[in-house]
Structures are given as C-alpha cells and as structure tokens.
User: What shape does this take?
Amino acid sequence: MKPIELKPSAQGKVRDIYDLGKALLIVATDRLSAFDVVLPDPVPYKGEVLTKISLFWFDHLSDIVPNHLLTADELDLPDELAAHADALRGRFMIVKKAEVFPIECIVRGYLAGSGWKEYRENGTVCGQKLPEGLVESSRLPEPIFTPSTKAAIGDHDENISFERVVDIVGAEHAERLREASLALYSAARDHAATRGIIIADTKFEFGLVEGEVTLIDEALTPDSSRFWPADEYKPGGPQPSFDKQFVRDWLEASGWNKKPPAPVLPEDILAVTAEKYIEAYELITDEPFMPESE
Assistant: This one.
C-alpha cells in the first residue's frame, strides 16, 4: 500500500479517518490487529479486501438496516484528495457522519473463541445460559447477541450484559441494536451458506444518522467475523477458517503475552493470511479479487 501523505483526523486499529466536513473518508489500511493489539506487519491487499467485502454486504443487506455509505467511486473524491487516488483506489469509502454508539454489537451463531472458554467454565456465554452438552464449534440453538465495550487501541474489549447496554444507550436504542444485529447476521449467514461458508460469529458497529440507527464502519469481513468452510465443518474442536484466526493461533503458539509490542509475523504467515482473506472475498461475492491500489 502506497502511504497517503495526509494526517488522518482519527485512527482505528485498521482504518484511518479523514474529516471532509459534511462526510468522512474512511481508508482501510493493511494493518492487522489481534487480541486488540495492532501487529507490526501489514497483510498484503488486506485493506482492499475489507473494503470490497463491506461494500458487498452494505448493498446486500441494505433492506434490513440503513448504512453509512455515500460512495466508493474515486471520481467522487474531493479535489484535495485527487492526487492520492492511486493510494486510495479500492480501499476507501466516503460515508455519512454518525453519532457512534460505544458498543461492539457481537452476534454468535456457533460456540467458539472466548464464548467456548466461558461455556466450559460456567455453561454460559456472556452470562447467557446455554444448553448442556455442547462442544467446541457447536451450532447454537439460535444466534445470541453478546455485546462488548469499544476499547481504545491497546486496551481489551469487555463483554457486557444487555442490561448494561440499556444503561449506556437507553432501552429503545439497546433493543434496536440487538434486533438489527440479529437480523443482519441471520441474513448474512443464509447467503454465506449458499457460498459454502459458515459465519460462526461477527461484530457490527452502529451510529445515529439523522436520528436513525445506521450500520457503520465495516460489515462481515474476515477482520470482524469467523468464517469457516462448510465442507470441512466438524464440531468438537477448532475449525479451519478464512479469517485472522490463523494469525491468532500462531500468536498463541508463540508464547506472546498479548500485550504491546506484538511479535513480528513470518512472511509465510502473512502470505497465507492474505490468501485466506482473498478467498473469503471471492467465495462470498462470487467475484475474482482484482487489486486496484498501488
């Protein structure tokens, strides 16, 4: 990715945000985070993959909840950014400004990750009681809404109860966030199933745009979701994946304490991760991945 010689107004773990006045320019970089820490090595083409998958889902799910996208066409870049078109191409979105809810809206359809760990200890996931006898990667009887806080870079998100969401955003918005998250997940899960992918869980973010709850940030990418190949699904253990679980597994095995600084990733790990992200894009969208930015 060619560097953009502009100072962003804000930076997330992966995205750089530029204030355009009435709108925002969001640029997905090739940065990778794991365990809420930004890793030192970029994953080739990752920002483009994230942007292209999000654009697909924003279009596919637009009848369920509105989203913040205005345009991703480089012809719509403002004059002051036209000189940066080569670096931005394929990895930017111009979006509506939103009053962001400070909640990570997570939906789990399968028992994995921290949810599996909690279930083994207490028979619950984020405090919600589940049936006995489930195994790692079991499909849940129905998807569950398991929100968390939005942590600053370097801090860890914290799982919270629905009641805590009510305290933070109010009862009406809390119910809408839960309803929208479950509806989006269910529709995406059904589409992905036709493409041979299981969406085990995913994370959404929302904000208010002109008073309406609106999907923002990214949607159903390998950064924010667990994607499993359906033809290899076998409950009872970890699953092969098309997401950054591959990197998480390597980091776990490395002995890293999950605090900054993160270890340097080997070239082969970065290359395989890029391949997995691209494969996820191609399966979900049924389109070949064609890199655009330099």
About this structure: The chain has two domains: 10-97+275-285, 99-252. Helices lie at 46-60, 85-88, 113-122, 162-169, 171-194, 245-254, 267-285. The chain has a mean pLDDT of 93. The first helix runs from residue 46 to 60.
